[in-house]
Every structure is written in C-alpha cells, then in structure tokens.
Write a structure and sequence with these properties.
The protein is of the alpha/beta class and 451 residues long. The protein contains 14 helices and eight strands. The protein has helices spanning 2-6, 11-25, 37-46, 61-74, 92-100, 125-135, 141-153, 175-232, 243-265, 272-294, 334-341, 367-384, 388-393, 396-402, and strands at residues 49-51, 78-83, 105-110, 113-118, 316-320, 328-332, 350-353, 356-359. The protein starts with a helix and ends in a 49-residue tail after the last helix.
Length: 451
C-alpha cells in the first residue's frame, strides 16, 4: 500500500507523507488514555465541543452534538469544554489556548463552575466578562452553555477553523486526516498566500452579511424620517413662513435625500455612518423648524435619544444602567424621560438578529457605525461602556473590521486562524486560584471576585 502511495513522489515528500499517515493509522499506545489539556485541545481542533467522559452526566452526547451543530452552522470560532470538577486548573485557559493553537473564544464548564476567555481579536475582555456574568448562576449545564453560546455567536468576530470542516471519528482514516496529509505537500509554497486570501475573502463575506442586516434597520430609519417630513406638513409659501423656516426645511429635505443617496452607495458597514449622521442633522432641523412655527425658543443642539434615535433630539440626560453594567447618564427624549421618571422602561430600539429581537447595543459589531453616525465618536464610547457593543468597539479587532477608529488591529490573526502559541497570554488570564488571572479563582479583578 505504501509503495502505491509513494510511487513517483520526491523522497522528502514521501517521508513527510509516511510520517503523517503513520500518526493517522498507528496512534501511539495510550495517547488518549488519560484526559489532560492536550486531549481536550486535540478534540477542539476537530470540533467545537468536548465533553470529558467523567463529566458526561452534565451534558449528554445528544446535547453536545446539538451545541456543536449550532456553532458549526454559525461558522464562528467558539470552543466549549465540559470538564470534571477535579480537572487540573493551573493556567487552564492559557495552556488550552496554547495547545489548541487556534484564535477564538474558549468556554469551560468545570463541575458546576463556568468561565471563558478569548483572544482580543475576536472579543474584548469586557465583552467576555459581560457574557459570562449573564449566565452565572444557571445550574443546568445544557441551558447555561446554550445561552452563553447564543449570545457569543451574535457578537464574536471571525470564522470557524478549517479543521472543523469534515472527517469522522470512527477510528478509520478521516477526510480531515487525508486533507492534512495533502497539506504537507503544499504548505511550503502556497500556505501563506492561502491564509491571506482566505482571511480577505472571509472578511469581505462578513462585511457583506453585516451590511445586509444593517440595510433593513437603516431603511426603517430613512422611512421614519420621511414620514416625519410628511407629518410636519410645511409649505414654504404658507402664511407666517419666513426665511429661517424655509432654510430649516430645506436642510431637512437635503438631509433626507443625502441619507438615501449614501445608503444606495454603501458597500461596507462603516459606510452607514454617513447615512445616520445625515438623518440626525435632518431631525434636528425639523425640531428647529417646529419650534419656530409654534413660537417656542429654538432648541439647543443635543444628541438624539439614546434609546431610539428616531425619537429625535434629546431634551435631558437621565440615569440608566444596562444589565450587568454600571450606571451612566444618557440623552433621552421627552417621552422616555417621562417613562424613566415614572419608573417605566424606555421605548428601546430593537433590531432583528438570528437569535431574536435585541436592543441595538446588544446586536453585534455592525451597529457601531450606525450608532456612531447618530452620536458621534466622542460621545458614543461613554454611552455604551458595559454593553456588548461598547465592549466590542473597544476591542483591537473592531477597528479593522468596521473602520470606526475604535482600536487598531494591526495585522495578526482573525478568529479561527491557526496561530499556534502566538497570542497574547494576558487575554487568557492566569490559572485557578493562583492570583494571576482569576480563572475560576477569587483573585481576578476582571470577574469581580470570581467564584
């Protein structure tokens, strides 16, 4: 059989292929006898979910398969490990990330405890912390892991690793193994080019998908503004109209047409910023025109309502605390200010995501440019701190993906890329109870005391 495989091939390639095939067909005795980090990492390179045999009572095989299928379908670099409570904890996340060698988000259920770490290229520490906090206290492993995964998939950057693409686990020669053997022959000549081309194609696909989601929301905004123009029912020649009113009305009309034109030319999510900036300017012009017609003082220029920019310019700042975040002052319209002071919930702008309707600040990174056009670069980070969108916008990978100036990616690896040990160990904390990173311990400030 080996003679047939090697006939006519150069000697070096023969040696490499035989070595690779030997590892596939003749694994070292006892290589998988003991569960350790290397065993977990090897499994995660083949698929997104690993359940230790000693922890199989927490997550059944059917539940693990369903979770893995969800992650694969989303094509995102999310890795989940379910381990027994007595699994060695020293530097677990860092060692697991090093051994797996793939950029992504790593979540570990350890007994009845749960935590996660991620490369900052795919998700910031703050975003990971917020997601972990949102599922703490959920005792059922299947429920906790699915809730965490659903929220993570909506916000993580990057794509699934190529190593998840196929193969079987029946002990025979898998398609993945044969692909790996073939890769040995070509990696020297074409590997770097393939990685760069794949990353560029994947980023283009992600941006097109993000823009398609945004287009629905922005079209709603443009339509709402057009309806406001109609409701105002202003005629430049009407009795009482003066040059200032006509100028306000002309600016509003220009903003409406400009927003439509910008959206028609948009090719990337960051192009949406100009659209929403035009709409914000147009709504302020309408507010000024309405005040002039009613004989009221011209309003001061303020940011639009934080909860839904379609509400128009804000009239005051009000205290608001997002789930799991710190309180802050946000600009609100009169109606939302009255709701808040009356103990009611504001009318929040929700958008469709693949996981249902969510507030725009919890709907993924593509909404950064959309919000940035309404609120401006200087104001937005302070308003969104502690929210999922705010955390993502603070991550190093965000600026490269959506061009808003929040962070500088500067190259490196996207989610799903094989980076080996080339990653920031600070992203993955220290170890269990060693005081270095707070991994499932009590010393990590990132997790507010941990377990």
């Amino acid at each position: 059989m080996r003679a047939a495989l090697t006939r006519g091939l150069p000697g070096l390639l023969v040696a490499l292929m035989l070595a690779a095939l030997a590892m596939v067909w003749f694994p070292a005795p006892g290589a998988h006898a003991a569960t350790d980090v290397s065993t977990v990492a090897a499994a995660l390179r083949k698929g997104p979910v690993y359940v230790d045999p000693a922890a199989s009572g927490q997550l059944s095989a059917a539940e693990a398969d369903a979770l893995a299928a969800k992650i694969k379908k989303a094509d995102k670099p999310v890795f989940v490990a379910v381990l027994p409570a007595d699994f060695p904890t020293a530097n677990l996340f860092q060692n697991l990330r090093t051994d797996t060698g793939i950029t992504g988000l790593y979540a570990v259920r350890l007994g009845d405890r749960f935590d996660a770490r991620a490369d900052s290229a795919v998700m910031s520490r703050s975003a990971v912390r917020n997601l972990v906090t949102s599922v703490q206290g959920v005792s059922d492993a299947n429920t906790q892991l699915n809730e965490f995964t659903d929220r993570a998939l909506a916000n993580i950057h990057g794509a699934a690793p190529a190593s998840w693409g196929g193969g079987s686990n029946d002990g025979g020669v898998s398609a993945g193994a044969l692909i790996a053997v073939g890769a040995v022959a070509v990696v020297g000549a074409a590997g770097a080019y393939t990685v760069v081309r794949r990353n560029r194609r994947r980023q283009d696909e992600e941006q097109r998908a993000a823009l398609d989601r945004l287009r629905v929301v922005v079209d709603e905004d443009i339509t709402a503004f057009g309806e406001e123009l109609d409701r105002l029912d202003f005629h430049p020649a009407e009795a009482g109209a003066d040059d200032a009113m006509r100028a306000d009305y002309e600016r509003a009309l220009d903003a409406y047409e400009q927003a439509k034109s910008y959206m028609a030319r948009a090719r990337r999510p960051e192009d949406v910023r100009g659209v929403t900036q035009s709409l914000e300017e147009g709504r302020f012009s309408l507010a000024v025109l309405a005040a002039r017609r009613e004989g009221r003082p011209v309003p001061e220029r303020r940011a639009p309502c934080f909860f839904d920019p379609r509400h128009g310019p804000s009239v005051a700042d009000a205290a608001w605390t997002p789930a799991g975040g710190a309180p802050r002052e946000v600009p609100v319209c009169k109606a939302d200010w009255m709701r808040l002071t009356g103990g009611e919930q504001p009318a929040v702008r929700e958008v469709e995501t693949e996981y249902g309707r969510r507030p725009y600040w919890d709907a993924g990174p593509a909404y950064g440019p959309w919000a940035g056009g309404y609120f401006g670069g200087g104001l937005l980070p302070g308003l969104l701190v502690g929210t999922v969108l705010g955390s993502i916008m603070a991550s190093p990978g965000y600026g490269a993906a959506y061009g808003t100036g929040y962070g500088d990616f500067g190259g490196g690896y996207d989610g799903g890329d094989v980076s080996g040990a080339d990653f920031d160990s600070g992203d993955f904390g220290g170890g269990f109870g060693d005081g270095g990173g707070g991994d499932f311990g009590g010393g990590g400030g990132d997790f507010g005391g941990g377990f």
